[in-house]
Amino acid sequence: MATTRETDSRKLLGRLREVMAEDAGGQTRLDQITQLIAEEMHSDVCSIYLFRDSDTLELCATRGLNPEAVHETRMRLGEGLVGRVARTGEITNTDDAPGTHGFRFMPETGEEAYSSFLGVPLQRLGEMLGVLVVQSKEARQYSEEEVYVTEVAAMVLAEMTELGAFVGEGAALSARHQQPVLFQGATGQEGAARGHVWLHEPRVVVTNPFADDPARELDRLNEAVEELRVGVDKMLFSAKGGDKDQLQVLEVYRMFANSKGWMRRIEKDIGRGLSAEAAVEKEQSTARSRMSQVSDNYLRDRLHDLDDLSNRLLRILTGQGSQTGAEMPADPILIARNIGPAELLDYGRNLKGIVLEEGSVGSHAAIVARALAIPLVIHANRVTTEALNGDFVLVDGDQGVVHLRPEDTVISAFRDKMAMQAQAQERYTSIRDKPAQTLDGTRIKLHMNAGLMADLPSLESSSAEGVGLFRTELQFLVRNQMPKRAELSQLYSRVMDAAQGKRVVFRTLDIGSDKVLPYMKPNDEPNPAMGWRAIRVGLDKPGVMRMQLQALLRAAKGRPLTVMFPFVAQLEEYANACAELDKAIAREKILGHPLPASLEVGAMLETPSLAYAPEKFFEDVGFLSIGGNDLKQFFFAADRENERVRRRYDTLNVSFLSFLEQIVQRCEATGTPLSFCGEDAGRPVEAACFAAIGLRTLSMRPASIGPVKSVLRRSNLDELREIIHAARDRGDQTVRPVVLDYLRGKL
Ligand code: PEP
Ligand code: MG
Predict the structure, then answer these.
(1) I need a surface site. Which of 74, 303, 457, 517 has the fewest CB within 10 A?
(2) d(CA 641, CA 644)
(3) SS3 per residue for 76-117
(4) Does ligand 1 come within 6 angstroms of the Cβ of 677?
(5) CATH fold match for the domains 436-444+624-671+673-747 and 466-616
(6) Which residues pair with 92 in a beta bridge?
(7) What distance in Å separates the CA atoms of residue 407 and residue 424, rounded to the nearest whole number?
(8) Helix, strand or coil, per DSSP, at residue 32
(9) What's the mean pLDDT in 495-505?
(10) 364 flagged as catalytic
């Protein structure tokens, strides 16, 4: 009995293949397919509904229902039995359709005569494309085997839809991957870019879902699985002794790769006429649709693992993958689910823009993108599913928006935006060699933030007066293992060479919180931003800090050196860190190594507590730099990584400005040099306010120097100060509106 049915599915697939092989238009194909499925299923009706837009399904072909209803009958997602299948992604199989909850009567189709209804989702890798429906007058439940056959047909149809098989004359169907799509993500790095898609991991497209010879397909599958197992074992072997979490993931991979259930399901599908790759993809699709419904994090992660494993297997089977032979476009916009910092650095400045499905503002990829000044949009949900290599794409890093295959109107609006940016850029270039001097004659020093060797050329191009913050952790983050002292020392030395005598403030390692080194055991902390990070790690486990301090002393080779300790919360921490530095100097002396010509040592002011440190601290510390990113998050108790709250409080809130003003005054009283190096220093309106309350040195991304200088040169700090104080006296919450008014008047 079972064999006869299996033969049926093979027969159906065989006939489907014949239809697909014919040189026919899209609609003709759809019509032929509904006819043959109805025949093979011994059913009165077979219909195909496809999404017209994200919310509406359209009857696109039918055998059995009123042909006049084709392209006329539409339903919303969730409406009627068809809409419900599309919404839930679950099969509906009933012998009494009109009596089933949710049934919607559509008189134009003449479907009231049909009792039984089998609706199967048309989906590809968890992405819903439409619904395949089979109906009969006879009141009967479709058997398990019949459901299976319909599922296989649906899968093949979905694959063909993906390949654009149903586009063409009269089809009234737009091909997938040809329509414009807008993604609303979040800003990772500001800036606008236009270019062509370059997929970090191109999707595998199954071009041949059918196979005549199941035995051959099974052999292909077994060979591929063997290759996969060997690959996973190799990864496991090389990871032994490494990070526990990574090992755990690989163990799970191995478990899946050896999983009998997984293999059995794939083998069964091959036995029924699918090619090995189509069978793997069918299994992957099931896992993906489960993934979207599972809320348990652990389970979701495991389904993710299974998805990755299926991808690997598909690459082996089809020979597709990153080595597709495709050529990177001249203006590549990198699209990826996620990407590691080292991989991103490999692409380097070639990239015009980056779009990620996952990621976070503080992720390593975002840090690198920022360092390279490449516009980045994160949380662009499903972008890897929609984009194809070579697609035209616009990235708006300011708004966190991505336009894939945009309409002409969007392209021209975007062109205007980019032209305005280019004009502004020209303006900045024209004042490149002019000082950041305000109308009242105050000189503001503009420095740049850096963290990679790749940043240093910007020192010249931006005309920054120095590097106000060199985030040394980036070098640790982009590697797979802890860098050695000699390597670090060489790197720091090259940084100083490139700076050509300009001051570089080397901030010692700030790890923990959002910056977790790939080769260090992550600490499961409830509140990492307030946890064991930066100087706290440095003082508790001084090995790495000592190594870094030595590397810095040696890199200086007799040149001046500036060192800054991050995240200092109280005097004692600063004193202890200085004691470590003194020890390192004493050791260098004993070894006979040259000492820096001069040494400046300072601290970052990132915790409110330090603003209230005893006078002695302000007298002792060589200089202070306000880390506004952290300081603001602790001042307002609003996580800088949490999209929901990170923009909730304005930096120009009078409370925060008053707090900053107090810090300025304390530093003035003791003559302590003070700068501001958080992201806000690079925002022109904020920068003007900081200058007005007394800050004289600002450190920012190189790209912000032009815009900040331009605004400062048009501001009178005495006037601005008055405006700020008046707003505070009036009881305004933020000074932004009045300051904006003032600055607009100066344009
Ligand atoms: C800051 O907190 O403002 C800062 C400059 O340090 P980071 O952003 O690296 O935490
Ligand atoms: Mg910080």
Answers:
(1) 457
(2) 9
(3) ECCCHHHHHHHHHCCCEEECCCCCCCCCCCCHHHCHHHCCEE
(4) yes
(5) yes
(6) 119
(7) 26
(8) helix
(9) 96
(10) yes
Q: Is the pTM of this model over 0.85?
A: no
Q: Which residue has the tokens 């007066």?
A: 465
Is 677 tagged catalytic?
Answer: yes
Ligand 1 contacts CB of residue 8 (under 6 A): no
Measured distance between the N- and C-terminal CA atoms of the chain, rounded to whole angstroms: 84
The pLDDT value given to residue 7: 42
Measure 511 CA to ligand 2 centroid, in angstroms. 10
CA torsion sign for 147, 148, 149, 155 is: positive
Cα dihedral sign, 601-606-607-610: positive
How do strand 624-626 and strand 599-605 relate by DSSP bridges? parallel
Top-confidence range, 23-32, 293-302, 490-499: 490-499
Q: Which ligand is nearest to the CA of 371?
A: 1
Bridge partners of 565, per DSSP, are 603
For tokens 């009045």, name the residue. 738
- The class (CATH top level) of 214-318 is mainly alpha
User: Which ligand 1 atom sits nearest the alpha carbon of residue 628?
Assistant: 3
| pLDDT, mean of residues 533-553 | 94
Q: Which of 467, 510, 535, 676 to mutate to test the pocket of ligand 1 (most atoms within 8 A of CB)?
A: 510
Chain centre distance of CA 725: 41
User: Which CATH superfamily, name and number, covers 181-202+324-414?
Assistant: Phosphohistidine domain (3.50.30.10)
Evaluate whether 413 touches 401 at the Cβ level (below 8 Å).
no
Integer Cα distance of 678 and 629 in angstroms: 5
Residue 556: predicted pLDDT: 96
Q: Does domain 466-616 have CATH number 3.20.20.60?
A: yes
Q: Which of 507, 607, 629 to mutate to test the pocket of ligand 1 (most atoms within 8 A of CB)?
A: 629
Homologous superfamily, domain 436-444+624-671+673-747 = Phosphoenolpyruvate-binding domains (3.20.20.60)
Secondary structure of 177-238 as H, E, C letters: CCCCEEEECEEEECCEEEEEEEECCCCCCCCCCECCCHHHHHHHHHHHHHHHHHHHHHHHHH
**Residue pair 684/708 in contact by the 8 Å Cβ criterion:** yes
Report the CATH number of the 2-162 domain.
3.30.450.40
Does any ligand 1 atom lie closer than 6 A to the CB of residue 451?
no
Q: 120 has which bridge partners?
A: 132
What is the Cα–Cα distance from 555 to 490, expressed in whole angstroms? 6
Identify the band that residue 6 occupies on the pLDDT scale cut at 50, 70 and 90. very low
Sequence ranges of the domains in the chain: 2-162, 181-202+324-414, 214-318, 436-444+624-671+673-747, 466-616
Question: For 274-321, what is each residue's pLDDT tens digit?
Answer: 899 989 888 887 777 666 666 666 666 666 677 777 888 888 888 765
Residues 86, 79: Cα–Cα separation, whole Å: 9
